[in-house]
Amino acid sequence: MSVVTLAVDAMGGDHGLSVTVPAVAKMLSRHAHLNIILVGQAEPLAEAVQKAGLSGHARLEIQPATEVVAMDDPVAVALRQKKDSSMRVAINMVKEGRAQAAVSAGNTGALMAVSRFVLKTLPGVDRPAICTAIPTATGHCHMLDLGANVDSEPEHLMQFALMGQALVRAVDGVSQPSVALLNIGEEDIKGNEQIKEAAALLKAAPDMNYVGFVEGNGIFAGEADVVVCDGFVGNVSLKTMEGVAKMIGNMIREEIGHSWLRKLSGLLALPVLSGLKKRMDPDRYNGASLVGLRGIVVKSHGGTSEQGFLSALEVAEVEARRNVPALISDALAPAATAGQDH
Question: What is the pTM of this model?
Answer without folding.
Answer: 0.90
